[in-house]
Amino acid sequence: MARTYFVYILASETRELYIGITNNLERRLAEHRSSWDLDSYSCRHKTTRLVYFEVALNVRAAIRREKRLKRLSRQRKLRLIEKLNPEWRDLAST
Asked: Three-state SS string across the chain, please?
């Protein structure tokens, strides 16, 4: 059975960004929002709003895409988010 993977970007209220991958987006968002690891980047920077995600059909493609996104300049990341989510809505709450 094929698995689906997600490459996602979380943002804080001040638009601090976090990029990651998962095979279960709902579970991973719950982990980020629970602040169970107080030393984690997401907890320290309060990146809890899902502002962008893509679907990948295998883990290798997801990892490649995550690495590409992380190498983008901040300006290009912002443009990518604003192209599909100009109001920076939390896509997990829609």
From this structure: CCCCEEEEEEECCCCCEEEEEECCHHHHHHHHHHCCCCCCHHHHHCCCEEEEEEEECCHHHHHHHHHHHHHCCHHHHHHHHHHHCCCCCCHHHC
- Which residue do the tokens 């169970």 mark? 36
Select from 25, 18, 20 the least CA-distant residue to 7: 20
* Rounded CA separation 94/25 (Å): 14
Residue pLDDT tens, the chain, 94 long: 578 999 999 999 999 999 999 999 999 999 888 876 677 777 677 889 999 999 999 999 999 999 999 999 999 999 999 999 999 999 998 5
In the block, tokens 């638009």 appear at: 15
